[in-house]
Each structure stands twice: as C-alpha cells, then as structure tokens.
C-alpha cells in the first residue's frame, strides 16, 4: 500500500469515527430529552444557552492554553453540556419552582439531582450504542457541575483541579445564564450584576482562570 493511500484510509476512518460519534451524541441527547420529557420552552432555552456559552468558553480556554485540548474532547463537552441538569426531571416541580427560599429539606432534595442525573444517564444510555470513554465526560458534567472551586459544593465537596475541567466549564456558564434569566422565584439580573457576581466568586465557586476567560467573552 502506498503512503498516500494509507494516509487517505486513515483520514477516511477518522472521518467515519467522528461522524459516528456525533450521531451517537445526538441520539443520546435526543433520547434523554424525550424520556425525561424536557419540553418546557424556558428550560430548553437555558440548555441551549449553556451549550453555546460552553462552546465559547471551551474554545477560549483551548486558545489560552495553546490548543492543548483534543477536538473530540472539546466537542463532547459542548454536546453533553445540555444534559447537566437532566436529574431535575425527577424532582418535584413544586420544589423546583418554589417562590422564595427553600427550607433545609427542600435544599437536600435539590442537591440530589446530580446523582439522579447520572443514574438516568446510565439507565437510558444502556439502550443505545455508545463509546464508554465519551460517556465519562457526560457523567462528569452531570455529577460535578455543582462542585465549587473551594470545596463547598455538592454532592462530594471536591475542590480545585480535582473537579473535572468539563464540569468546571459548565458550572460557570450554567450560573451565569441562570442569573440573567427570569424564574418564578427570582428576577433576571442585568449582565453587569451577573458579571460582578462571577468576578466576586473567582477562587470560591469558580476556577479563577475560567472567570477571567468568561468575562472576556460575554
């Protein structure tokens, strides 16, 4: 086999793998959206906003770090960011949309949603063909996107770089979009207010390097 033919076959195989991977991601996301009955327009708008902000922040991080991230890894972060709150589909709407402050019991229920989300992911993904390595990225986003840089988050109170990068990225864009959206229990914050909050939470809630990047792109 000539070198040119070998290179062509390698490229063709790479293209096929990428096409298969993207189709599998879409299949998984569409399936979970359907089985979890995610049809609320406001929720879907939030998920799409998070996905777009995840794309922008992931690309900015990659440029800042001299392109150290693999293209497939970046694509998986972007695609799976939309599933971060899938566990909330199993929580009572009365608690999710409660106006006013949650009591301690209600807060504990809310804090179960990352664990519920991973359980849903494993249960539903078993019905389709999927790459287990890529599934880890989805699981990390769902499970760890409420952990905090200083270790005060949930469900495991891990901190700093022990939190997977994909979860740190989704964590900060999730909060930013939630702050700037109106909800039954809160008003929409202005962009200025949200930016100030994100800045104040660097090194506390959020990875300081990601705070810097997010404030550059929003």
Question: Gist?
Answer:
By secondary structure, this protein is mainly alpha-helical. Helix content is 64%, strand content 0%.
Question: Main traits of this protein?
Answer:
single chain; 218 residues; mainly alpha; Hypothetical protein af1432; disordered N terminus
Task: Describe the 3D structure.
This protein is mainly α and 218 residues long. The chain has one domain (41-217): Hypothetical protein af1432. It is built from ten helices and no strands. 30% of the residues are buried. Mean pLDDT is 85; it is low at 3-14.
Q: Count of helical segments? A: 10
- Structural class given helices, strands, pairing? mainly alpha
Instruction: Find the count of extended strands (DSSP E, 2+ residues).
Output: 0
Q: What integer value in Å does the Rg equal? A: 19 Å
Helix content: 55-70%
- Specify the oligomeric state: single chain
- Indicate the CATH class: Mainly Alpha
Biggest sheet: strands, sense, closure?
Answer: none
Fraction in beta strands: under 5%
**Poorly predicted residue ranges:** 3-14
Shape: globular
The CATH architecture designation is Orthogonal Bundle
On the 0-100 scale, what is the average pLDDT? 85
